[in-house]
Amino acid sequence: MIEPKLEVPAELRDLAEKTIDQAEKAFGMFFDAATKSMSSVPGAGTEVSKQALAFTEQNMKSAFEHARKLVHATDLQEAMRIQSDFLRSQFTSAGDHMREMTGTLMQQGKGKS
Fold first, then answer.
1. Residues pairing with 57 in the sheet
2. What is the pTM (predicted TM-score) of this model?
3. Tell me: the pLDDT tens digits for 12-37?
4. What CA–CA distances, in Å, run from 88 to 14, 32, 58, 81, 95?
5. Pair 87, 30: CB distance under 8 Å
6. What mean pLDDT do residues 63-84 have?
7. How far apart are CA 84 and CA 70, in angstroms?
8. Per-residue confidence (pLDDT) for residue 3, from 0 to 100
9. How far apart are CA 35 and CA 51, in angstroms?
10. DSSP assigned state of 41
């Protein structure tokens, strides 16, 4: 069976790209501000908070990259492959992040004993 092509006008793809770029820039500014404010507040949970923020930033970058790929999908099969790859990578990243966070929390707990 032949997959029909996604007939999306170039202008619409360009608009989507620009929107993704603007959203990514706004999130970048947010993460910069959050990182600076976190650095100015010392505390026991600061390292875990920095780590969580870094993981969130990494996830957002992946989401923007995913959106860019989807904008350029030429058929439904390609879009579904892109979505499947993205979900698989997100599950892997979530597991990695949880292991790292758990390790950090355990290290901090040992330091308090």
1. none
2. 0.80
3. 999 999 999 999 999 999 999 998 88
4. 27, 28, 15, 11, 11
5. no
6. 95
7. 11
8. 63
9. 10
10. S
